[in-house]
Fold this protein.
Amino acid sequence: MVTKYDDIQEIGRQPSIFANNGARKTLIDRNFAGHVAKVEAEGKRAVNRSLLTMDAPVHMRYRLITAAQFAPKGIKMLEQDIREIAREAIDAMVGHEEIDFLNAVSHRFPLRVILSLLQLPRSDEDMLLSMTQRFFNPRDTEIAGIQTGNSVGATSNHDLVNEMYDYFAALIANRRANPTGDLASVIANSTIDGQPIAEADAVSYYMTIATAGHDTTASSTAGAAWALAERPEEFAKVKADRSLIPSLVNEAIRWTSPVSHFMRTALSDYELRGQTIRAGDWLMLCYPSANRDEDIFEAPFEFRVDRAPNPQMAFGYGAHVCLGQHLAKMEMAIFFEEFFNRVERIELAGEPKRVDSILVGGLKRLPVRYKLAS
């Protein structure tokens, strides 16, 4: 288990020694892993081969497919659409004094951005949210029960992976037959080494964007709202000085650190902080711990909207740093610009509840009480 900021960076700088595509990519629920393997044995390989699990040089070939779309220049043109989606999400707070901020607002906002990017119909919103929640939280029986309406078990897990594969395979077929120039079309019609991208690889690309692309942003947005609800003095700072919003966003991402870990496999013996790592050993890179490293962050267990410097590592480090990090930061900045335009105060209206997850952490409920501007 690697918990220190500098150690994770040291590992990230040496992909030739610490492989991403080893026997373990992440810790995963054993039952759920079995159902993934079963679906892949049926010919639908997607979950265990993705941007998150590839190594060089293959990883870069796939990353370059959408690198331009996710670069700062590429996402700039999305700003107005994202602002309209943010305003619509905050509209859910109108006419109420209390709300479950997570499920009514912060889950909906980034998911609708992804729907817009992929030009998917709004009618698919609830289904995609359900898929993501069940995919990332197979251990959480409450989420699985709520989302499926059934008892939790092998059939629901197996069906979930099948359902996700079939949904995105249909999207590939549609965009190959009717390309529109959207992000989904870029992926579906991309080539790798001169050959059309394999269906399973395109499916995994969509799955990464449609799940990780909204769930982590939703978690960070809700985490910011929770922190502000408990700290009226920090809320007041941003209310009085909107130039703090980028700093608030960065601190919320550090504070929340939605992705708990990724794994690396040592390809050769190595010594790290006096500890001998043997070839074949698995290393668990713990990002929430790195983001609270006292050697890097002053008062790391305090939430400070004006924290500077703040070299948070929630998006990872090295070759596998999150492709969508610029989009996530822009989404959150726009959201909180609109949020502070309309919200006069916010406080907790009950106990927040966390998901039972070993990969992507976060909340499943965030009851808040608030006052909107007249």
Summary: The two ends are 51 Å apart (CA to CA).
